[in-house]
Amino acid sequence: MALDPALLWAFLTALIAGVTRGFSGFGGALIFVPLVSAAYGPRVAAPSLLVIDTLLTLPFLIPALRACLWRQVAPLAVGAVVAVPAGVWVLAHMDPMVLRWALALLGLGLLALLVSGWRHTGRHNLPTTLAVGAVAGFCGGAAQMSGPAVVAYWLGSGQPSALVRANLFGFFALVTLASGTAYAVGGLFTAEVGRLTLLLGPAYAIGLYAGARAFRGASDRHYRIAAYWVIAAAAVLSLPLFDGLIGR
């Protein structure tokens, strides 16, 4: 039986995405959704990641919930939950190719912002925090990519990497509840999503634990450099220009 290049591409992507998520607390979606979308489309990739990531990050969640600062997480989560349905509507109705280009450009834009040395020097007032949360929720509903806006917000304010990572786990836990509900209502949990979840889950799990172990010895500087490379690689490889790599 010939090896399915699309499935092999998705399997390797899930492994790398898991390493990234386990190490940084974010980035799994930045890699998984755009690259798996190249093979199966965003309407399959995004719900598949939601199921895989929700189930496999549970062991990491309890310690993170104890370490995160809820006064920082809660306002962002409120803004995100309100905006999630709009993102889900875009996922269900936008042309997949247009959505993929939008995801790639989003990643490149955030990378440019972070690498430029930008820092959020203003106060984290409630309107600003809710707005950032809304952007994150919209992107999360559309492609499970709620992390970039929040990461830029927290890293831009000089937060230590350990706190950013813990906050991200807490934030994602709340936003996932909203996204999962919206996906279910929208009928996005299909048989194809279930099949891909079963096939890619083991690779993502291996990556998660490898990434978590690597984080224990990482400095803040290493964390930032890794985050930059994650965003750059995902944005470039997710461009539809590279579809030929997987025979699509």
Describe the structure.
The chain has 248 residues and is mainly alpha-helical. The protein has one domain (5-240). Helix content is 79%, strand content 0%. Helix 1 runs antiparallel to helix 2 (28-40). The longest helix is centred in the last third of the chain and has 25 residues, at 161-185. The protein is globular. It starts with a helix and ends in an 11-residue tail after the last helix. The model has no long low-confidence stretch (mean pLDDT 81).
Number of strands: 0
Helix count equals 11
Gross morphology: globular
Secondary-structure element order, N to C: HHHHHHHHHHH
How much is the radius of gyration in Å? 17 Å
Strand content: under 5%
Estimate the helix proportion, in percent. over 70%
Which structural class matches the secondary elements? Answer: mainly alpha
Low-confidence spans: none
Largest sheet: none
Distance between the termini: 19 Å
Question: What is the total number of structural domains?
Answer: 1
Mean pLDDT: 81
InterPro entries: TM_pro_TauE-like (IPR002781), TSUP (IPR052017)
Main location: membrane
Protein name: Probable membrane transporter protein
Pfam family, one: TauE
